[in-house]
Structure formats: structure tokens, C-alpha cells
Amino acid sequence: MMRTVFVAATAFAGAALAIRTHREYGGHPAQEIVTRSPCPLLNALANHGYLPHDGRDIEKDTILDALEDAVNLDRPLTDFFFQAGLGTVPVANATRLSLHHLSQHNAIEHDASLSRPDAFFSSHQNVFDPTVFAETRSYWPDPVIDVRQAAAARLGRVQTANRTNPAFELNKSGSPASTAETSIYLLAFGDVGAGTVRREFVEYFFENERLPFELGWEKSKFALTQEHLESMIARVVAETESLVNGSAMMGTTPESQRPLAGNEL
Prior knowledge:
By secondary structure, the chain is mostly helical. It is built from 9 helices and 4 strands; from the N terminus they run ααβααβαβααβαα. Helix content is 43%, strand content 3%. It is globular. Mean pLDDT is 85; it is low at 1-31 and 248-257. Its cofactor is heme b.
């Protein structure tokens, strides 16, 4: 199950491209048609030039290189992501994907996103929503986000979606993807051992869909592996269960929401 979890959170991408720099992409033709995904990380990689700027026809080798170069995700983990992403391509035996393919609902894209509206309300899951993200960031009161605050933000979004979306669902793909979404930003931008991350890094990343280089962030000095991911997911899950069992959620009451199934937490 843990393997499925991260499938959705980092989303997969790649495409042959020449420039691997953290500078903003520039000079693309005016007629270029750009596509993006529900995954802020993949979008950031395309915006920076680690992936093709247009987000189209992405090959496996490109994503392996891009995620290794940009955030130091190890290649076996990235390969796993890419293979899962191919499942959203509406072509048999596909070997490439475009970022918009990942918007397929309940495959990798899921309800209760940290930065996107539920599919019931909008078809624009590939576009950042400041209102949705405002709720997410409201659970981060301190300059440093810890695992408990990260879990609270995710749980808050799940509770809001469950209360307001009549079609709300976190299925066997969406639930692990949701947990991985939170685990990824803790790993990619924070202190893996401490389970903490500077709030400004995370806010900058979501709001701009760029890596926070200009705020002083640097990629991990060691490769981030499946083991790191599973460990962080376990910590997020444990804090979520603690919040639920302790009735520690803010702003929601049992009367205001439908019961949540266990796999949705």
C-alpha cells in the first residue's frame, strides 16, 4: 500500500529537454501550447526547464534525470512514478505522457487536494487555486511546519471536501496520493530526519510552481528513496490518527461532516 501512496503525490513527468537550470524558462515561441498537471512539482520542473516547457510527450529518461537533478529523488522511485503515470494516458502501451494526462480524476488526481478544487466543482485541477490553498496554509501558524501541522492541513482539507462535496471520494488511488502529497513537500524541501520544513519554502513552491531557490533552498545532499517516503508517510498517518482520535481538529464539528472511511485518512 505504501508503494501506491506516493504514486500520486509527485506525479510523474519528463521529456527530452536540454536545459537543466533553476532559472525561469524564457524565449519559447509565442505559439507554444503549454500543458500542466495537478502536480505542482512537475509543473515547477517544466517551468524551470528541467522538463520540456510545453509539458508534452514526456519520456521516462527525462523524468528520471529531471527529478534527480532538481530534488534528488532516486531513479528507482522516479521510475515507479513514471510507470504509474503512464496509466493515465488514453493510448494502449504508451511510453510517453503529457502533463495534462495526470488530471484524470481518481487515477492520480484526487479530491481534497492541498491546492486544487475538487473535480465536482471545477475541471481545472491543473491550475493552482488560491482559495483552496488559503485553507491549507491556515494550519501552518509557525515559520516552520512540522509533521503534525502538515497532517492537520491535509486532514482539514479532507474534512472540508467531505462536508461540502456531495461526490467526495478518496479511493484506493486517491487516498495514498493525498498522503504522499503532504509527505513529498516535507521530504523535498525540509529536514528529512526532523520532519520539519520552512513554511516560506512550501508557500513559495505552491503559489509560484517554482522551486524555492531564491529563498535559499537547496536540494537534498542525499538521494531521497522509497524508504524515506514510506517513513514520512507513516509519520503523517500517525499524526492524522492522533488528531482524529483526540478530536483536535479546528473549525469542524462531528455534526458538520459525514463520517470518513478509514482509508480516507
